[in-house]
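Issue 218. Parser rejects a valid record. Input:
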Amino acid sequence: MQTDAIWQILPESIKEALKKGGISLDSFEEIRIRTQRPVSVRRKMNLFYLNQNGSLTKTLLPEMSLVIMSKAEMEQILLNASRFSVYAAEEQIRQGYLTIQGGHRIGICGEVILCDGKLQGIRKISSYNIRMAREVRGCAREIYPWLWEKERFLDTLIVSPPGLGKTTLLRDLVRLISDGTGIHRPLTTSLADERGEVAACISGIPQNDVGQNTDVMDGGSKTDTMIMLLRTMAPQVLAADEAGGEEDIKIFAQAKKWGTALLTTAHGTIKQHLFDQKISGLFSRYIEIQIDNDCSRNVLIYDQNRQLMTTVEIERSYE
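Output the parser choked on:
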């Protein structure tokens, strides 16, 4: 199971409820855990609360026996997620998250520690947001041919609101670029995996399939690692998740001068990014992931002239 690592860090009260209800973690998109408050889960874009008897409910009622997290359980989650070495995970915690095996990211909230006005860490943790990472091989298969022009992979930006599958799609595109498809040749690819969500490296070895010709720089500042990858690995394609800051854009511009193609993601909508002057001219393909009322995911592909080229349904690939 892709969610085994998540199961290992959960407190017994949540595990027991899930067992009683016969509920698999694989059916969730995220789990939100807060001190002295009900545990909630997101499933097919809907929010539910977890009852002690294993049932899920959308409505809070006084007579319900909901799973409530104690302070001790919150502390145990942190110990489990950091492999009983909170000190070793200090840098990630300072940035407000932990990444565990499988690329699952745990967002963290609590009391901020400041030193000379700068954030140094987080203590007295009060909230976790456990986001399920899913490796879905083949979900980008129908999209991939649209990202080529003759023998050239085109600079591509993937955009959507949080939680719609940008990272999942990015991962599968990296794999296809790296391995080739028979129709399109394999390309040497460098991946700046700042949060470890794409390749999910353990001891330097990717746990997710990002292709045979992909070099991964795991952790560290995305800006720094992208520069290092360009200088040392001479990639044909540079990939990164959730890029788009001013320094990132400068690096992208430099990469294009060196003949390296780009693949990255950003939060937001296509309208926000198509007309953003900072990225104008950087990308030749824009991908937007949208979700319908029935939770179907659609991918809209635009060309460099901001014209819609095609729409691809990918909801089955994400099930």
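Fixed in the parser; the record now loads. Residues 166-179 form the longest helix (14 residues).
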